[in-house]
Amino acid sequence: MSVTQLSQSFFIGCIVVLFTLPASAKDNQPMTHIEAGVYTLTQIQEGPSKVADRYQDLDQDGVEDALDHCPNTTPEQSVDALGCEPDTDKDGVYDRLDQCPETPRTITVNFLGCEGDEDIDGVLDSKDRCPGTPLGTRVNSYGCKLETDDDQDGVQNNKDQCPNSPPNSIVNQYGCKPEEQVITNIIFNTGSYEIRADQKAILDKDISRLRDVTTEEVVVITGHTDDRGSAQSNLKLSWNRANSTKDYFVKTFNYNPNQILILGKGESEPTATNDTAEGRQSNRRITFSIMDKRIIPKDVRLNIPNEMMHYNRYQNRP
């Protein structure tokens, strides 16, 4: 047999073998998706309701997909009625990750659910009265530099109007014990209502003792005099002193002028005898009183009345 005839015989033999393979060899071939019974949603020939039945709780958290606000939780995670992980303190961090699980709602937290300390001084931001302290600065419990708060009340010395507060005192932003009524006996020149330059520091310290005023309250500034001069003259003088004090109050302490009312009492309400110099100085006073808007005296005014303006110390003089 020639070489050509031998090659043809071999080729024919291969074809015969190929078409006579046993069925078991075909079974070893990979099956298609259709043969394996795996379908896409578009291949399932069923109505929408049947599909919904097949996929009621995809993340297997016990909450049906129609009600599940967090459809991708894992089976081992506990969830609430909406299918979401619980966040007991409502700070935006799930309980599972929250390292500070009782943070108040008003506090801004980090990814661990804890309040931040932006200047890294060891004092949480909500309690830090001196934010932005340079790194490494020794601070007190209020986050302020120790060297600048001698009485340790949380108010730095350069802002502290009451620099000798007892330890652990409750103080306002000026370092003073908050009070609802304050009396100042600053000195005015005779017959004058101008705030003297040498009295401003005293007035600042006295005003600083007032507690914070809420939106439902006002400050009533009342002027008083001694009994020297006529009663009518003293009444006008007291109104003008109250008014000039209000102007100073608003300008220096940035109070809302609509929350400050004035009143003049003249010589009608002395607290000491007018027979001595000391007594008369006690009677020449300005009072600051925080009052509920609903119970303020009826004769207070936002601005000085016209009839009390243009004070003249010699008017109605006997």
What report would you give on this structure?
With 318 residues, the chain is α+β, with helices and mostly antiparallel strands. It contains 7 helices and 4 strands, in the order ααααβαβαβαβ. It has helices at 3-19, 23-27, 33-36, 48-54, 200-207, 231-253, 277-283, and strands at residues 181-184, 217-224, 260-266, 286-292. The chain has a 4-stranded mixed beta sheet. It is elongated. The termini are far apart.
Question: How would you sum up this structure in a few lines?
Answer:
With 318 residues, the chain is of the alpha+beta class.
List the helices and strands and how they pair.
Blueprint: H1 3-19, H2 23-27, H3 33-36, H4 48-54, E1 181-184, H5 200-207, E2 217-224, H6 231-253, E3 260-266, H7 277-283, E4 286-292
Parallel strand pairs: 2-3
Antiparallel strand pairs: 1-4, 2-4
Keywords:
alpha+beta, single chain
**How many individual β-strands?**
4
Strand order of the largest sheet: 1-4-2-3
Order of helix and strand elements from N to C terminus: HHHHEHEHEHE
Overall pLDDT metric:
80
